[in-house]
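call fold target=Leucyl aminopeptidase family protein
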Amino acid sequence: MKFQFQPKKINQESLIVFPVFENQREEFLKEKFPNLTFPSTLFSGKKDTTYTFPSEENLIMLLGLGEDPSYKEIEVAFRRILSKNGDMVKEQVILDFPDSFTTSQIEAALVGLGLGSYQADFFKKTKKNDFQKLKVGINHPSPESKKAIHRAEKILAAKIEAFRMVDLPPNILTPEYLADWAKELAKSQELKVQVFDTKKAKKEGLEAFLAVARGSVKEPRFIILEYRHPDAFKHVGLVGKGVTFDTGGLNIKTQGMHYMKSDMGGAAAVLAATQVIASLKLPVNLTTVVPAVENAVDQHAYLPSEVIGSHSGKSIEIVDTDAEGRLILADGLSYLNQKYKPDHLIDFATLTGSAVGTFGYECAALFSNDDKLSEQIQQAGMAIGEKSWPLPIWKEYAKEMDSEIADIRNYHGKPIAGAITAATFLQAFTNDHPSWAHLDVAGVAFGDSEFSKSKTGTAFGVGLLLNLIENHL
């Protein structure tokens, strides 16, 4: 797909899309179609309304956006064009934006249109549509629109990568695959990359990380990406949970295991965010850590009641092997904090069913010891439709993780406060970092949508992190 600002030629059989604000409907339609009449019963301009009709050699689509659509609403509206009406499209789509469209709205529209081309049909012999060669023309009077096009291309590419990472099956997307992906990104964006294999991870003291990996024939990879900018104003550290498949270990899952390829949604978010931040050359220093493992079962698998070590030096009693994500994150947080000392430390993880029980599939659970950072994360996500909401991490909850035999246990064994106690466990491995935040994205990184027959990746966190780093920190 190729975006072009104000194309000189409109091909035959092109789809020409006119976005219409409800409160500007009459004025806009009279200007664009002076010889046609559109009764409000035919096309009102309300949110989620469309009207399509032929005009000479092309097809016209009026796309209703309502009066004051959000960034996410615009993105979704434009995603429907290719996802649901792809058969109408030949070689070219023209987006004829009203003058009142802002650059942010144009960005949302272009990202949404591009996302509509995505299909998780990686292994099908016959694919539904192929929009790789599609030409997209953008008509808008402001030269600033060119900047929106450039940004949209970078954001779209990163979100598509996040989709792919979560949607690929676990026999393809392994810890080694994620490591190779990071290496390729480092080449294309001139980043520094380090990948620890088992031997190197053991040397670095990543014992909790290695314990989870013991039961799988797929070798673990501890991935570190460094993006540096000469005009950086902050150093941000990101950690993403990279469990490429989660059986639950010896505490094996009894339902829903088919979807556990998505247990690396946190890794997808931070890796794709690193891609877009580097490609836009934002003035920030960024260090991204992804502990990538498969939590499987064999004779070497770690056992409930084992006591294992960790990078921080704390001993951990294993109560439940299905509470594995917090173990690899513990080593990731400890390593990143001790080796790089970032100003802000943020982790993303599909961590607990408790977060889903609290917020459903609309919102991530947010935990932080820095009220300002917490507010900035909420604001950054709300602006682009990636919501998060804070839950407490009071010291009383930390007592739930006390162990008789070790410094801490990985699960409190109770059907209450699961997301909160998991967050307090993670906090114990931040070495009292003054600006840490944890986002439990179990309910929002992977789910049902109108764009797929089955659950798929959402790229949740990519836009949030971009907006946070670009406009809030």
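return ok
The chain has two domains: 2-156, 173-471. DSSP finds 14 helices and 20 strands in the chain.
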